[in-house]
Automatic annotation (TrEMBL):
This is Short chain dehydrogenase/reductase family 16C, member 5a. Keywords: NAD, Oxidoreductase. GO terms for molecular function: oxidoreductase activity. Belongs to the short-chain dehydrogenases/reductases (SDR) family. The gene is SDR16C5.
Length: 299
């Protein structure tokens, strides 16, 4: 296809996708049925990981739960089972350790089978200015928030590709779209997570594996304890998000094969402004998005 025809195709498809998005503001998208699917959630021992497990359980799925907290993941498994899961398997796994990810992944394949929905949810934040953050915590942030996604994809994506069926869900952050004052290492890890998930999604489309979907979730800060001690500067425009609301939106995005989910909705406007404004103007958004108060590190 020559340059002119391909350009016309892109323009027409862009118009169509925008029209389709406008229509879906008024007409709900069709939800897919995931009953019987095997769903693996990392960081499932607390927070939105636990809430997602309960929501996926209610849809009649088989759950595989990973966390480093034995008591936490065990309690999540109990709650998920009581909420309607077909079966729940839980494992201790430190997602920052590549060898452990591969070892536990092999165990899952033997004991449960192929994972068809992978939710990379595990995450940490140092809560320190870049200069003040110890090297060990910076490395841990990158290992958990970014590199763990590489290893879980390596472990579970081949089966999805072979079946041309599956769903990759990346729980990233709005801090993976716009740099935020005081969160340099966290932003770097989330920018990487967003870029990685988007790039792999494009690889899948380019190779004709359109049955493997991607959903990238970029919420503002969530009231789960990770950002205890913080208050948003502008609660009307950018509120600290309720975890139950966030999880409902994530499930809807997965069930409707939505590629990007930004929360709250004002993030769509803010992210768009960043892309069209000059750097010296758009950089102010990072300060605008900053949090007031001290962040307590959730590790």
């Amino acid at each position: 296809m020559n340059f002119f025809l391909e350009t016309i195709q892109v323009v027409l498809l862009s118009i169509w996708f925008n029209v389709e998005s406008f229509i879906h503001l008024f007409v709900p998208r069709k939800r897919k049925n995931i009953s019987g699917e095997v769903v693996l959630i990392t960081g499932a021992g607390s927070g939105i990981g636990r809430l997602m497990a309960q929501e996926f359980a209610a849809l009649g799925t088989v759950l595989v739960l990973w966390d480093i907290n034995k008591d936490g993941v065990k309690e999540t498994a109990r709650l998920a089972q009581s909420n309607g899961a077909i079966k729940v398997h839980h494992y201790l796994c430190d997602c920052s350790d590549k060898n452990e990810v591969y070892r536990v992944a092999d165990q899952v394949k033997r004991e449960v089978g192929d994972v068809s929905i992978l939710v990379n949810n595990a995450g940490i934040v140092t809560g320190k200015k870049f200069i003040d953050a110890p090297d060990s915590l910076i490395e841990k942030t990158m290992e958990v928030n970014t590199m763990a996604h590489f290893w879980t994809y390596k472990a579970f994506l081949p089966a999805m590709i072979a079946n041309n069926h599956g769903h990759l869900v990346s729980i990233a952050s709005s801090a993976g779209l716009i740099g935020v004052n005081g969160l340099a290492d966290y932003c770097a890890s989330k920018f990487a997570a967003v870029g990685f998930a988007e790039s792999v999604g494009l690889e899948l489309l380019a190779t004709g594996k359109d049955g493997v979907k991607t959903t990238i979730v970029c919420p503002y800060f969530i009231n789960t304890g990770m950002f205890d001690g913080c208050q948003t500067k502008w609660p009307t425009v950018l509120p600290i998000l309720d975890p139950h609301y966030v999880v409902k939106q994530i499930l809807y995005a997965v069930l409707t094969d939505q590629v990007f989910l930004l929360l709250p909705r004002s993030m769509y406007l803010i992210a768009g402004l960043k892309n069209i404004l000059q750097w010296n103007v758009s950089s102010l958004l990072g300060v605008y998005l900053g949090l007031a108060g001290d962040i307590e590190c959730d590790t």
